Amino acid sequence: MTDQKLPDLGKIPPEFFDRVIYPRLGAKDPNILIGPRHGVDYGVVKVGGSYVAMSTDPFFIVPSFGFGRAAWFGFHIIFCDVAVSGLRPKYLAIDLNLPPAIKEDELEELWTTVHAEAKKYGISVLTGHTARYTGCDYPMVGGATAVAVGPKKDLRGPFRVKVGDQIVITKGPAIETTGLLAVLFPRRFIEAGGEPFQKEAAAVFSQMSVLDDCAVARKFPGVHVMHDATECGVWGGLFEMARAGRYGLRVREDLIPVQPVIRRTAELFDFDPFTAISEGTLIAMVDKKESDKLVAAFKRKGIPAAVCGEVVPLKEGRRILGPAGERALAHPVEDPYWRLAAEFSA
User: Fold this and answer.
1) I need a labelling partner for 228 at 20 to 30 A (CA). Which of 161, 239, 332, 345 fits?
2) How far apart are CA 113 and CA 5, in angstroms?
């Protein structure tokens, strides 16, 4: 027994997974190259001569976004987690457990958007289930599995990381926190900083995807591992990656790009942007011979990026070099987004 308490909201903490989930993963299979672990967004299994990456997530629909924009976000949440495998996203299996309140035109708008995004990225819908059920409600209206396929040489993962690799981060922290809150609670942003500020913050919503980032990164064999900085943000993502790969890190906080509108959002609403959920922020460990070239390629595509540190031997620890000096990189455990969303909803 344990007296540890689960958080009220958000992901179950890593300690629970270590104690309860990971020791109980069903039958062992030698074809599984990457199974469930902290800091890895996908699993990988060998099927014949190909490698298949898969990831499963809730299908997340917030009607107040508008059903088209909500479906865009739901689709990208699903596929970002396999795009970081380095394999090419190819198939979608989706289960829609819809609330009785959804209307035909809303479902049509939702699905038209899913189809358009899938077609844009060369993804085919493989199977699914669609129904309305009592007891189902927004935003979690089912789940979906994204599938990516490719040869082993294209696969990225913690097993490829080596000492001396550079840390490359795109877009900076708190992308999702800023984009979601500004769209969900526009009045709060207008009251805090005016209408132009709210509009600028709401525009960050369209950055909440790493599919385009990964399409750039796939062209560089020196990209060894990638991760989407979702819950607990940049610090959580870096910590999980380092733990999964059993390596140390030296991170330069001052080199991580922070968009001005996001910095202002964090100051106005008093949260640490580096610990806040940030779907759309890609973190990659990259061979130092290619890191500057990768950053340049991102910038040519209009994606802000920077080299922000390096991989070091595990015995040297995981350290952040910040404005107040050097400190240990620790997992934030609780993400401020959930507190802010609850506060703004009150």
Assistant:
1) 345
2) 39
* Spatial contact of 86 and 160, defined as CB atoms under 8 Å apart: no
pLDDT tens, residue by residue, 175-233 = 999 999 999 999 999 999 999 999 999 999 999 999 999 999 999 999 999 999 999 99
Quote the pTM value: 0.90
Q: Give the mean model confidence (pLDDT) for residues 327-341.
A: 94
Q: What is the pLDDT of residue 12?
A: 80
Give the end of a domain, one of 136, 154, 172. 154
Measured from the Cβ of residue 64, the count of other Cβ atoms closer than 10 Å reads 12
Q: Which of 336, 318, 337, 343 is nearest to 328 (CA)?
A: 318
pLDDT at 40 over 70: yes
Which DSSP letter does residue 50 get? Answer: E
Provide the CB-side half-sphere exposure for 226 (13 A, CA): 32
| Same domain, yes or no: 203 and 59 | no
- CA-CA distance, 317 to 311, in Å (whole number)? 10
Q: Is 53 in a helix, a strand, or coil?
A: strand
Nearest Cα to Cα of residue 306 among 321, 284, 287, 328: 284
Please check whether residue 21 lies inside any domain of the structure: no
For residue 233, what is the enclosing H or E element? Answer: helix 233-245
Q: What is the mean pLDDT of residues 83-107?
A: 97
Question: Average pLDDT in the 82-88 region?
Answer: 96
We report the CATH number of the domain holding residue 90 as 3.30.1330.10
pLDDT in tens, 143-171: 999 999 999 999 999 989 999 999 999 99
Q: The domain that contains 305 carries what CATH number? A: 3.90.650.10
How many structural domains are present in the chain?
2
Residues 201 and 316 in one domain: yes
The whole domain housing 145 covers 26-154
Q: Is residue 250 part of a domain?
A: yes
154, 180, 213 — which closes off a domain?
154
β-strands 88-98, 166-170: how paired? unpaired
Position 116: which residue type?
Answer: A
Q: Which H or E run includes 291? A: helix 291-300
